[in-house]
Input
Amino acid sequence: MGIEKGKISRIQAVFLVTNATLATMVLYVPALLARETGQDAWITVILAGAVGVLYGGIVVSIGARFPDKNFVEYSIELLGPWAGRAVGIIFGLFFLYRTGVVIREFSELLVNLVMPETPLVVFNILIVSLATYGVYLGLEVFARVNEILFPIALFIGTVFIALAIPEMEFYQLKPVLVHSLPALLRGSSLLLSFYMEGGGALLMFYPNLRRPEDGKPISYQVALLLVLAMLADIVGVIALFGPEEAARLIFPTYELAKTVHLGGFIEHIESLVVGIWITMGGLKVMVFYYVSALAFAESWDLRDYRPLVLPMGMILAALTVLEFADTNQIRTFFRYMPAFTVTVLGGITILIYLLTIIRKKDTPGGGAAQGHKNERSTS
Amino acid sequence: MTLVFRKLRKPLKPSELKKRKMDARLQELQPKAILEQPVNTDLDSNIKLMKELFGNSSDLVVREFHFGSDKEIRVALVFIDGLVDKVSLSEAVLKPLLYRTIVDEERRLLPGNAFELIRDWLVTFSSTKEVEKIGVLLDLVLAGFAALFVDGFDRALAPEVKGWKDRSIEEPKAESFVRGPRDGFTETIRTNTALIRRRVRTPRLRFDMYQVGTVTKTDVCVAYIDGLVNPATVEEVKRRIESIDTDSILESGYIEDFIKDDTRTPFNLLDRTERPDKVAGALVEGRVAILVDTTPFVLIVPAVFSEFLQSTEDYYEWNSSVRSLRWLAVLITLTLPSLYVALTTFHQEMIPTGLALSMAAGREGVPYPAVVEALIMEVTFDLLREAGTRMPRSIGQTLGVVGAIVLGQAAVAAGIVSPFIVIVVALTAVTSFLIPNYSASLTVRLLRYPMLLLAGVFGLVGIFWGLMMLLLHMASLRSFGVPYLYPITPAVPAEWKDVFYRAPWWKMDKRPLLLRSPNRRRQSSAQRPEFPPVRPGREPEAVIEENRPGAENQDKKNASSSGKTSGKNGKR
Output
């Protein structure tokens, strides 16, 4: 058994992975998809969802073969100490970099929309300190907090989209399927790269599932939740603003929230949306940060990942400032992010998957029974 | 930063701990040698020793007397004045000894057999101990026993003649209810155990006694119901109590600090109460109670946060909405002042225009930023509240006048604060009193201040940041193995019926999951009272018609049969 001894329940895992994917996906992606595929963006969501389920299948089939080991542990077992650790460190670096990007995305949001006069680094430090505290307390703790907040955030998001319906004009979704297949694929590859990060995170805390056989339902439920949430978001945004306008906006979902008003006295409640984004974004950062810290700790054979947390926080606080010069660069990053994620994360995952198949590493003892035994002996 | 330092601090080695404990033992007040030695055969040296041990303290009573047919048997009675019941002492011990010279024809009291005869025939007290060691005897005398030395014997008798001035059972002042039992715990641990036992009549209710405190030697009692409680929890409670090494326990708060899972938190991880019905309810749920002598406050473990929003009265008077009201109260107490600051300072656009205008008008002329204004008023209110708590009751009224008129009205009139912040502070004050648990209410009130500062610096972002930090902190806490936010998270939705509202009793048929009771089911399910089915042909109107006063007087037979039907109707 690895470093992390905490256990999370199925519902906690579903919410955690979904939030780790969704929290930034609704931030920038609708605009990028609208630019790429216009009113056909909802098709890319479905396409990406289908491929995402496939990827989830790969993740689950690797995880089920090693129900008591996380990704870095069995990559060391499969590839040997040197190559395995290299994979672990690449995995950790990938998530460290992505953590930096996510933090930057959120602080950019806060600077642009809420407090334009405050320097960016203030928000960076706020989010990093929050995430550092959460990661320090451990997987169980932030999984629990996420378990409370994610349903609330999902509910409020749904209410916002529902309240915006009167303003929407659904003819803007027509004509259907005017964009070429390559454009659709490009759009869905962006979404897929987000799904892959969720899968990568799941690979890291697969051994901490209370019941390892829950992996399959988790991957399906996550995919379903993501597809539904993104569909609602993208259809709402495009029906509200039209594809051209949506592509120009930086934070289309935020603009959607801005149009909401109810009964003459609830107005300008978009700050509430920003608040929810801070909390959910904080939780997303915690997941990525945690995965990265754990991957490094496993690669270096540490007994605990906590000594790494504070130094990593300092690196992150600097990284978030240095990564991008402005918001446009973040959008540019997202255009090329699929290539980055699919090659690094997807490449590593598929490499390990192929190795498990070649080595004929079977699900131990038919899966369930052995899994239980392991769990009992370790807990 | 503290996180890092905590990791760096080297944990003490077990051997080091042991040595420290030995050092503490050496500092004990009484030399061990005297306490270990047996009771002397010689009466005079016994008396001398007792007097020496107590240093001629004025409340030590030593009564020497002779008895037997020729007054040849010398005995001495040693007790502490005020701790023993003198009436029962003279009835049960002194009278038989002084008035009787023989037990019966065969058994005469002689110096050789005096001790056995006194023990078996003369001392007529229900609970009497025979003691051989001075140390044990000393403890008993200090606990309210009397010590009876007989010349020529190396043992002493200790009849339990405890009796001291005790407060009568009164209604607890801090937890007052509209509906519910009116008795509260007192300062005597025996009375308290009896109050619990009277409610829970099962032999499986256990009271395990401990003595804690090298000087005060306070009785601490661990109460639980065997078979309903998780044995591991009891073990852990006992282990923690046994590991306490201190000189004094004067209140259960001392114990609380020693056995808490985490002291670096503003939240209290143990529940405390003065009400025996609450303790009985907790025991039946599978919790453990810790009673401490000389205090009416009983600790209950494990405790989770949602419990602090439950009043025992909720379980008697069914008003299910009040629970969610309390959650709202927590949220308002925590965030309303900071929301005011954030909205007026950073996010004016979120306030409806009309209100924003009148708020701006109210704030006109106020020289301070909103955060300072809010801090002034909040601190003032907390000062008033603390003064009111510590003040003699007769001055309380004056304080109310001073607080309301002088500070509230005058501060607004003088233009130091705006009228809106007075409303905010007053509302916060009211909501904070909705939290039934006093110390939980204090905690929430304390947390307003960091939230206020965050709101003053970062606006809404700061508030959300603070709430997240708070949630993370609370989710990381545990009380005797139970996560502090349970059952909200880890989510057990089946138990939310006792958190956000209070379901009727027939619905709450299981004990809380994470208390890990070996016997989870409380009652048989499906006890929901059903609406009585209406039998065809027996409509209520028809029965009323039959039972009309005019119809009843016609015939005896007729009347009785109609009475029967009505009886049946009532029953169905």
